[in-house]
Amino acid sequence: MIPRIDIDQPAPDTFDYRVTHESEPLFDDSGFSSVMHCLVAAIEGLSPEIIAVEVAYGGYVSGTYPLAVIALNHEQIAAHAVNTTESIREALSGA
């Protein structure tokens, strides 16, 4: 099973996440100060048999990563998610 972590920013300086598998909700939380904090909290809540997750921010998937890679590189993966979403939004706006 490879669940998906969806991270969103519902208000300035506030982030939330939800973890799903095949569109079925597994768990969620809110009130975090960054994408990175959401990512860390989400992977901490996963069961031990999960070996990889798909990461999305703002509705755009930035990649599928083994949990061990996220644990060691959570700052870079969070930054990649933000950069991917910003790039897609710029492309869609014609900027």
How does this model look, in words?
The chain has helices at residues 35-44, 67-93, and strands spanning 4-11, 14-21, 24-32, 52-57, 60-66. The protein is α+β, with helices and mostly antiparallel strands. Helix 1 (35-44) packs antiparallel against helix 2.
Question: Strand-residue fraction?
Answer: 35-45%
The biggest beta sheet is recorded as: 5 strands, mixed
Average the pLDDT over all residues and give the rounded result.
95
Whole-angstrom Rg: 13 Å
Count of DSSP strands: 5
Cα-to-Cα separation, first versus last residue: 38 Å
Shape: globular
Please identify the structural class as seen in this structure. alpha+beta
SS element count, helices: 2
| Helix and strand sequence | EEEHEEH
